[in-house]
Each structure stands twice: as C-alpha cells, then as structure tokens.
Design goal:
By secondary structure, this protein is mostly helical. The protein has one domain: Peroxidase, domain 1 (Orthogonal Bundle). The protein is built from eleven helices and two strands. Helix 5 runs parallel beside helix 8. The longest helix has 20 residues.
C-alpha cells in the first residue's frame, strides 16, 4: 500500500469515527447532526463545532496565512453530507444504486433490471464539480440509498472528487455499470454432466 493510499484509508476511517460520534445511532449530540442537515452553505457549518471538528480530525484546518483552503471547505461540506447518513454499511455506493449486472449482458435475468439511479442522474453526478452542487448531488445519492451508505467510501470520494486524473469518477463508473461482471466471458458457464 502506497503512502497516499494509506493516508486516504486513514482519513476515510477518521471520517467514519466522526460520523459514529456525531451522526451514528448512539451519537451523543443529535442536535449537531440536525444543525448540519439544515446547513445550506459551507459558511453555516463554521458555527457548528461538530462540523469544524471533522475538518480538524481530517487535518484540513486552514493555516495562518489567511488563504482560502479548499480542503477546509470540502471537510465542512463533507460534514453536511454525512449528517444525512443514518446507517453505515460496507458496500460501495454505486453497487447499491447501479446496474445489478453489466448493461447489455445476457448472462442472467437481472441484466434487464434497471439501476436504482438512472443513467441521466449518474451522468449528472459524474459531471458535477466540487462545491455546492456536489453537496446537493451527494445528499441526493444518500437519500436514494434510504440514508444507508458506506461512510468511508463517501468520504474518500467527496474529498478526492476533482482528482486531476479522475480516479474517483472512473472507479464510480466502473462500479455503477458493474463492469467487473463484464470481465468474465459469457461462455464461462459450467457444462452439465458429460459422458
């Protein structure tokens, strides 16, 4: 595991720890979660200590130079998104709302079952850039999943959404279209007893 992957894993687990403390079923401060859910702008999270705590835990606090720190704003916005998650789970968000099997595959009956997230909505999500629109798209995704989402995966994706090489968007497309199932040959079906 590279240093970057290790750091990403650490920050994702840190976000999950924050979610358990602030938004999880046994959270001690349900008022903070409610305020984060109602926040309509990044600037409103500045007045919510739990939101600023997430930025601090993720090491995204601005320095003393007074420059605008995009990591700080992203961490505050992430707090707004995670406040909408009611239950943490392990599966990838796009596996929950994407195609059950690769579209066009005729391997089984589930190939024709449509995804919970329409391709139009998925395209809109993938084309969204960081900022308020991304917060809206991620909150809609959480709502589509009924509030049950992989907190670590959401955190990792949200914070790395505009990676120059588009890694997160590529991974999400791979998962949404269930491209892993397309990698297996269609004729890879075991034959019945042969004599």
């Amino acid at each position: 595991m590279s240093e970057t992957e290790s750091k990403t894993q650490w920050t994702s687990e840190t976000a999950r720890d924050w979610w358990r403390a602030v938004c999880g079923p046994d959270a001690a401060d349900s008022g903070a979660r409610a305020r984060l859910r109602r926040a309509r702008a990044t600037s409103e999270v500045l007045a919510i200590p739990a939101g600023v705590r997430l930025a601090r835990m993720l090491g995204a606090m601005p320095d003393d130079s007074g420059r605008r720190d995009l990591r700080f704003a992203a961490a505050l916005d992430l707090a707004r998104v995670l406040a909408h998650v009611t239950e943490d789970q392990q599966s990838h968000p796009m596996r929950e709302v994407g195609w059950p099997s690769f579209p066009g595959s005729r391997r089984d009956a589930t190939a024709e079952k449509p995804p919970r997230m329409s391709e139009t909505r998925f395209r809109r999500l993938i084309q969204t850039e960081s900022g308020e629109e991304l917060v809206i798209q991620f909150k809609r995704l959480v709502a589509l999943m009924g509030g049950t989402a992989n907190v670590a995966a959401l955190s990792r994706a949200f914070r790395s959404w505009d990676h120059p090489e588009g890694r997160v968007k590529q991974e999400w497309a791979f998962q949404y279209f269930n491209a892993g199932s397309a990698m297996q040959p269609v004729n890879d079906i075991p034959e019945d007893n042969q004599e």
